[in-house]
Structures are given as structure tokens and as C-alpha cells.
Amino acid sequence: MAITKETQIGKIEVVGKHKFVQVRTDTVVIEDNEELSRKYHRHTLAPDAVITDEHSEVQSVCNAVWTQDVKDAWTTFKANQEIN
């Protein structure tokens, strides 16, 4: 009767004009190959986020969608918000 706990990437979504990346991480408890529980944690990454500690799948998505144009648009948007 072995109980294990593992973390999985449950979902990666790209949303909005500035291509924010939303990540759902699932924590799963398993006993004898049967799932006992699953809990979710979500976090969002903006195009200027440091992603070195993110899972490789998340890094791949970020690198694919955060083109230089997207990063520049995000930087400009933030600068305009600070002025107003």
C-alpha cells in the first residue's frame, strides 16, 4: 500500500492581447494506482516574467508566444499606465 504525491502541469493557457500565460498545477495523491485527491494551484505570467524556475513545458509555451513584438507592446503598455 504505497501512497505517492506528485505535481503535474494540468493546463497551460495563453490569454489576452499581451499573451499572458496562465498555468494550472495539479497536486495529486495516489494510493495503489488510485487517485485519492487532486488540488489545483494557478498562477499567471506576464511577458516580462522570469521563467527560469518554471516547468520546461511552460517555458516552451512562453518562448513561443512572447515574441519581441509582444514584449515591446507589454513594455509600452506598462509605461503608459505609469504616466497616467
Helix content: 25-40%
Find the count of extended strands (DSSP E, 2+ residues): 3
* End-to-end gap: 60 Å
Task: List the uncertain runs.
Answer: none
Radius of gyration: 17 Å
Instruction: List the quaternary state of the chains.
Output: single chain
**DSSP strand content:** 35-45%
Please name the defining characteristics of this protein.
about 80 residues; about 30% helix; three-stranded antiparallel β-sheet; alpha+beta
Can you give a write-up of this model?
There is one protein chain. The protein has 84 residues and is of the alpha+beta class. Helices cover 31% and strands 44% of the residues. The protein is built from 2 helices and 3 strands. It has helices at 56-65, 68-83; strands at 3-15, 20-31, 34-45. Strands 1-2-3 form a 3-stranded antiparallel beta sheet. The longest helix has 16 residues, at 68-83. It starts with a strand and ends with a helix. The model has no long low-confidence stretch (mean pLDDT 95).
Short note summarizing the structure:
The protein has 84 residues and is of the alpha+beta class. It has 2 helices and 3 strands.
Topology:
Layout lengths: L2 E13 L4 E12 L2 E12 L10 H10 L2 H16 L1
Antiparallel strand pairs: 1-2, 2-3
